[in-house]
Amino acid sequence: FINSLGIEPHVNYLYSDLCDGLIILQLYDIIRPNTVDWPKIYKTFNAIKERFQKL
């Protein structure tokens, strides 16, 4: 059902695609519009800091 909502990127593997939280935030923003403050969200991760930024 997630792919039918127009979420980008397309979800293929549930666990690995949801591990960074971006898709979950997109779903939450669809359910309750304007609740996610997108300028404060890391959409791309720095390779060195990636593990800590995903927390």
TrEMBL record:
Gene3D superfamilies hit by this protein: Calponin-like domain
Annotated signal peptide: none
InterPro entries: CH_dom, CH_dom_sf
Calponin-homology (CH) domain segment(s): 1-55
Protein's name according to its UniProt entry: Calponin-homology (CH) domain-containing protein
Organism of origin: Rotaria magnacalcarata
Species lineage: Eukaryota, Metazoa, Spiralia, Gnathifera, Rotifera
